[in-house]
Write a structure and sequence with these properties.
The chain is of the alpha/beta class. The protein folds into 2 domains: about 45 residues; about 240 residues, Rossmann fold. Strands 9-10-11-6-12-13 form a 6-stranded mixed beta sheet, with helices on both faces. Strands 5-4-7-8 form a 4-stranded antiparallel beta sheet, with helices on one face.
Amino acid sequence: MTIKTAAVHLRQNDQVLPVPTLEVESRPGRKTELREVGKVAATSATTALEIAGLEKSFTLQDRILKVLEHIDLSVNTGEFVSIVGASGCGKSTLLRILAGLDNEYVGSADYLGVPITGTDLGRGIVFQEHRLFPWMTVEENISLAFSATKVGKEERAARVKAQIAVVGLQGFEHAYPHQLSGGMSQRVAIARALVLRPQLLLLDEPFGALDALTRLKLQQELELLWEKEGMTTILVTHDVEEAVFLGDRIVVMESHPGRIKRIVPVPLARPRERSSAEFQRIKADVLSDFYNVGVE
């Protein structure tokens, strides 16, 4: 059943925003939801992401290589989910599908009740490499996120300035990537993903190339950003301690083909104490899944 109506208003960031046309859609087994025609506007459901029966294969030297098999996962709105697994288990491939960068798969991946069929400004992604343009300043690299939007010049400048402050890079607005440390460059990449105010943040090993101390600092900063912005967040990582420190749940994957082995809840208060007995117990429990697992 679908009913169209006009003169509907939504509240966002303490402002009342008009939505010209909405569809009120009801499907068997799902809660009734509101969405703007052509894009998601709002939803009454608590489930942000629904993955069901997802499978992905590649053709390699005339043979079919299955990368993902029978992936079923629900992620709640505002939840932080960590995904861990050995190299080659399909973690990054799954993230690319959720970002809309890969549409060749079997099964379903719905975000706010709508199938993911391409990229969307409501979903931001941060890669392991910061991917900054070396000829652009910090400010210009972050502003680049608006290139496919109709956001006005003044609002762009204000939001870039605010996001630079959030990631602690005031004073470096006009610096170039070669003038920044690895950790600072990654903060720029995170700011570029966040400046569009995505509802879903996807992180593909964002701290993998950083030194240990910088990594710990950015983990703490990411946790603070997540708590402040309230974004649904999915982190792919090889670092089990990082997964426990940040995640509400940990999805443990196994390889050949990539599939979910189990999901481990992390019922720890925040901020988390890494040296606590319960933190170490959960970490050891997850690590036990990788004993005798070789590096591919």
